[in-house]
Structure formats: structure tokens, C-alpha cells
Q: What sequence folds into this?
């Protein structure tokens, strides 16, 4: 049994939802203003990546940190969202916003497909199975050349986002900044403030911290674990869709070492299951990664070292180390 | 007909080496309940170590390279256990944290190898040339050798576990860590020992297969996943199970590669894993562990 206190207040205990929502949206508003003030399009680009990553990491935190399911196929959901949205808009001519919505459905389907075998497994077996799915996907994408997945070179020329008849090109960083911020903020709000504070979040934490007890009081384990996969996959697929239309290129690189390591470092530094840790981790790692660009040869090695060192020295995330310790439980 | 026999033979020789990787993985999991995600990257480490000793710098014969590599690999195993596994023991979220650090370690080893040796693949000449030919069926002597060495390693491990005091300590810890601790088994020493043995086994497998396949920094993931599927099918902690499962799965793989194509090998392993989990989740011989 995980020996940690549930670090979330639920809508049922009602503690401070309004107040923390207010703080959240005030910060989002601040970021929106900041986008206008930042003149440099490179800096805007970094923030756009941050906002997209926030969705991925919040979804991963939901399943790994809150539901306690060791899922390592998160980037698989991202890849399906990106490829799904790209292919639907290129081949089926869907307008990108619709394609992203459809990609969310694709994500839900993939979530179920990954979940069904995973739910027969326990603990680290889930980690290995899901990671195996992650590793097996790039060769399949190469085979997918036949159905127009572009093989190794990936898909190029993915249509730009079309907002109410207005084309948003990749070069228009300011609009993209606001679009990705809006998507990111809504997704993160839904994950941390609506879903995790609701019935589902309570069930997740109950299953994570006291599995047998949760079952005894009637939490349907299968249903909620399946839901954790589906919800997490849907949001991540949306992030993948946004990414595809922003960069207008998708290659099997989205399943490469760099993305995977970055995601791991974000969660390790931020700490799992302790909002806003993971989100802080995203900001730290994306910005840190850009600052490390000059050490390009050593960057991946350093990311690996960062995972190991943070987990050993800050097993609850860097943010967790500064929090006051919860009061000791009375025996 | 000869074709089918040749595919079978290739599967059988391959299976013996997979078995070595798998028992190494299962040994550590059995004793300390840690699924070492860096197991495959340590397989690559073995291959590169051999390349360094045989081709890159010292021109050692391959058998001597294996002997030199064993203490280095054992030291690496002990170092890993001491430096990154032991500090986590007993901490909250122990399970997820060990997954994170071993995955992180895998990427460190992988990228470290890439930095030191370059991203390209390396090759080592086998220590014996020539093929055995019986009735139109050919099999290279080298494959026969690695088959024999692998069987020898698995047999030696089985003997160690069943007949020596240290081996009994390993089994005691596997069955009941606290109980073993109470009767005076030095649990930390057992953990170090299993890590050392595990890294030596996977490293030697990496060396043995280096002349057959190429050595590459990313080349360890495939053997790692295969070893895992074998361990699951065989049943955890069962050397006998791993032995049987390795041959079944390697032969299936050989047929998939021949009739469908090599790029389907990994998806085929994944399908085999799902099939095993659906049909017999506790494995052929094992007891399902929670």
C-alpha cells in the first residue's frame, strides 16, 4: 500500500475549490498578457511547447500519480493524436479543429486497447507492457507507410489551424501562444480541478492508497482504471493533435528517446500526484532543456542523470522537498 | 523440410541465449522485486565492452575478453545496486521510484555508450568459423558454441541456486525477505550478489550475440523485452520455466522472421505477451505474484 497522504481536496470536502480556481485562472490570465509582452518569437515558441507539454504531463500525472497505474504508453497516445489528426486533415480534408476532436476519439480507442491487457496486470508488469507498446510502435509506423503514415520521414505539410476562417500559420507565434495556452489551461483545469476533484479522482486515490479497502466500499476497480486510461489518452491525443498542427510535421521522433526522457524528468522533478508539481516540472524542464541546447551531445545523458538524481534525492519531487511534512499519523 | 529444420535450429540456438538474459532478469526480480529496466542496456554494455577489448583496443581473443568482462560487469551490477537501488529501499512509492531510476539508468547507459563509441553499429568476428553440415542442413559452429555456452551458464546458475550456501540465501530472500533477514541472511549482500550475477549474465549474452547481430547502443531493448516475455511465460523465479519458455518463444520468433519478415519480430513478441497474459497469466511453471 502506498504510504502517502492524498494530496488533493475533493469537491465533496469542498476545500477551497473556488479560491484555487481563481488563482489558477489569474495565473493563466497573467501568462496570456505575458504572451503579448514577449517580443521574441523564439521565447513564444518555447512557451507554446510548455503549454502543449502541460496537457501531456497533467494526463500522465492523472494516471500515474493519482490513479497509481504505472502507464508508460503516454507518448503512444500523443503519437496517435498527432498522426490521427494529421491524417484526418490531410486525407479526409477535415478542418484541423474537427480533426483534433476526432483525434481525441482515436485516443479514447487506443486508451481502451492499451488498458484491456494492462488491467490484467499488476504494478511493474503494467509498466513493462505499456513501455513495450511504446517501443513496438515506431517499427509499425514505418510499416504504416502503406496507409499513408509517411514512414521514417513522417507526415509533412499538415494543414494550419483554421480559427473561424482565419488561417493560423506556424509563423504566427502570438496567435499560437494564445491558442495553445487556451487549450492547455482548459485541459489542465479539467484534469486537476474537475475530474480529479470529482468522484473519479476520489476513486483513483482510494484505489491507489488502499486498493482492497476501495473495493470493499464499492469502488468498481475495473471501471475506474479503464476510465483513467481513457481520460488520460483523450487529453494526450488532443495535445498530440495541437502539436501536429503547430509544427505541421509529425515524425516517429515523437516516440524517440528525447521526448520520453523529457516527460520522465518533468514528472520526477515535479513529483507525481501533487498538483501543481508536475506543471512546475514542465516549465522547469522545457526551459532548462532549451538552456542546455549548447551541450547538445550530452543533453540526453544529462536528462537521464536528472531522472536518477531527482528520484534518489527528491523521491517526492523537488517541490515536495520544500513542503512542510504532513503530520505523522497516530499509530 | 530442410528449411523448417534450419528455422527450428536457429530458434533453438537463439532461445538458449535469450534464456541467459531472461534468468538474469528473473533473478533480480525474484530476490528484490525490482524489474530492472536497464537490463537490456547492460546487454549492450557487454557487447561494447567486448568490442573495445577485441576490436577497438586490445585485440584480445573473444574468450579472454569474456573473462576480462566478467569482473567489470559484476562491479557494474554491484555499483548499480549500491548507488541507485539501495538508497530507495524502504522509501514511500518505492515501486514507481525504482521503475523511474532503472529506466533513467537505461537511458544513461544507452547515451553514454553512444557518446563514447558513437551512434554507429559495431561488429566483432566470431571466435570460430565454419559450418556444420548434416544432410543438407547447415549450422555455423559459432552458433553451436554459443548454444553450449548458454546452456552451461544456465546450468551453472541452477546449480549455484540449488546447491550452494549463497544460492540458498538468494532463494531464501526470494521467498521471504523478512524471514531470511531474521535467520541471519545478509539481505543487502544478497541484493548485491543478484545484481552482479544478473549483469554478468546479460552482459555475457550481449558478448555472445555480438558476432551474430551488430552491437548498437539502442540494441538492448529488444533482448530486454524478449527476456521479459520469456519470464512471464515461464513463470517468475522459475529457471526451468524460463528455459522452456525461451525455446518456445524463440522458435516462434524464428518462424515469424522467416515467413512474415524481421520488422514484425517485435510486434510478434508483443502479441505473444498479450496471448500469454490472456491464456495463462501465472506462466507455465510459476506462481503468480502480487
A:
Amino acid at each position: 500500500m502506498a504510504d502517502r497522504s492524498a494530496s488533493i481536496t475533493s469537491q465533496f470536502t469542498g476545500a477551497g475549490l473556488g479560491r484555487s480556481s481563481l488563482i489558477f485562472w489569474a495565473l493563466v490570465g497573467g501568462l496570456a498578457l505575458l504572451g503579448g509582452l514577449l517580443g521574441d518569437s523564439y521565447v513564444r515558441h518555447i512557451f507554446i511547447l510548455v503549454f502543449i507539454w502541460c496537457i501531456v504531463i497533467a494526463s500522465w500525472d492523472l494516471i500515474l500519480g493519482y490513479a497509481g497505474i504505472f502507464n508508460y504508453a503516454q507518448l503512444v497516445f500523443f503519437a496517435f493524436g498527432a498522426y490521427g489528426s494529421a491524417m484526418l486533415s490531410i486525407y479526409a480534408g477535415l478542418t484541423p479543429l474537427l480533426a483534433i476532436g476526432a483525434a481525441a476519439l482515436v485516443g479514447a480507442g487506443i486508451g481502451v486497447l492499451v488498458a484491456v491487457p494492462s488491467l490484467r496486470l499488476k504494478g511493474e508488469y503494467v509498466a513493462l507492457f505499456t513501455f513495450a507498446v511504446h517501443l513496438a510502435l515506431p517499427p509499425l509506423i514505418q510499416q504504416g507507410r502503406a496507409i499513408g503514415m509517411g514512414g521514417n520521414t513522417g507526415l509533412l505539410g499538415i494543414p494550419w489551424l483554421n480559427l473561424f476562417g482565419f488561417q493560423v500559420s506556424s509563423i504566427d507565434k502570438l496567435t499560437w501562444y494564445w491558442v495553445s495556452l487556451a487549450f492547455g489551461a482548459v485541459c489542465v483545469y479539467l484534469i486537476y480541478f474537475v475530474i480529479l476533484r470529482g468522484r473519479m479522482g476520489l476513486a483513483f486515490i482510494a484505489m491507489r492508497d488502499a486498493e482492497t479497502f476501495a473495493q470493499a466500499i464499492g469502488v468498481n476497480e475495473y471501471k475506474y482504471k479503464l476510465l483513467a486510461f481513457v481520460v488520460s489518452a483523450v487529453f494526450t491525443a488532443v495535445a498530440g493533435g495541437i502539436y501536429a498542427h503547430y509544427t505541421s510535421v509529425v515524425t516517429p521522433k515523437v516516440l524517440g528517446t528525447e521526448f520520453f526522457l523529457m516527460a520522465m524528468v518533468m514528472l520526477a522533478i515535479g513529483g507525481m500526484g501533487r498538483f501543481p508539481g508536475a506543471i512546475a516540472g514542465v516549465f522547469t524542464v522545457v526551459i532548462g532543456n532549451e538552456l542546455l541546447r549548447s551541450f547538445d551531445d550530452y543533453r540526453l545523458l544529462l536528462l537521464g542523470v536528472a531522472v536518477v538524481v531527482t528520484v534518489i534525492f527528491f523521491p517526492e519531487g523537488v517541490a515536495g522537498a520544500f513542503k512542510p511534512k504532513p503530520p505523522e499519523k497516530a499509530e | 523440410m530442410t528449411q523448417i529444420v534450419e528455422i527450428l535450429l536457429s530458434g533453438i540456438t537463439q532461445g538458449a541465449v535469450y534464456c541467459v538474459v531472461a534468468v538474469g532478469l528473473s533473478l533480480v526480480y525474484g530476490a528484490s522485486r525490482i524489474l530492472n529496466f536497464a537490463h537490456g542496456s547492460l546487454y549492450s554494455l557487454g557487447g561494447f565492452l567486448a568490442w573495445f577489448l577485441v576490436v577497438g583496443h586490445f585485440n584480445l581473443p573473444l574468450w579472454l575478453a569474456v573473462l576480462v568482462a566478467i569482473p567489470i560487469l559484476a562491479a557494474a551490477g554491484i555499483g548499480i545496486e549500491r548507488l541507485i537501488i539501495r538508497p530507495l529501499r524502504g522509501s514511500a512509492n518505492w515501486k514507481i521510484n525504482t521503475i523511474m531510476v532503472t529506466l533513467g539508468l537505461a537511458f544513461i547507459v544507452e547515451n553514454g555508450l553512444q557518446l563514447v563509441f558513437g551512434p554507429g553499429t559495431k561488429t566483432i568476428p566470431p571466435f570460430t568459423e565454419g559450418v556444420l553440415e548434416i544432410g543438407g542442413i547447415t549450422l555455423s559452429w559459432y552458433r553451436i558454441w554459443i548454444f553450449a555456452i548458454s546452456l552451461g551458464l544456465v546450468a551453472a546458475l541452477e546449480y549455484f541456486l540449488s546447491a550452494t550456501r549463497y544460492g540458498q540465501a538468494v532463494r531464501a530472500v526470494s521467498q521471504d525477505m523478512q524471514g531470511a533477514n531474521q535467520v541471519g541472511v545478509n539481505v543487502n549482500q544478497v541484493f548485491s550478489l543478484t545484481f552482479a550475477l544478473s549483469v554478468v549474465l546479460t552482459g555475457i549474452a550481449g558478448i555472445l550475440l555480438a558476432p551474430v547481430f551488430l552491437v548498437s547502443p539502442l540494441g538492448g531493448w529488444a533482448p530486454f523485452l524478449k527476456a521479459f516475455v520469456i519470464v512471464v511465460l515461464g513463470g517468475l523465479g522459475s529457471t526451468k520455466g524460463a528455459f522452456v519458455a525461451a525455446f518456445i518463444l524463440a522458435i516462434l520468433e524464428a518462424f515469424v522472421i522467416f515467413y512474415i519478415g524481421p520488422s514484425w519480430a517485435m510486434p510478434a513478441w508483443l502479441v505473444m505477451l498479450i496471448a500469454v497474459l490472456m491464456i495463462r497469466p501465472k506462466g507455465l511453471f510459476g506462481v503468480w505474484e502480487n
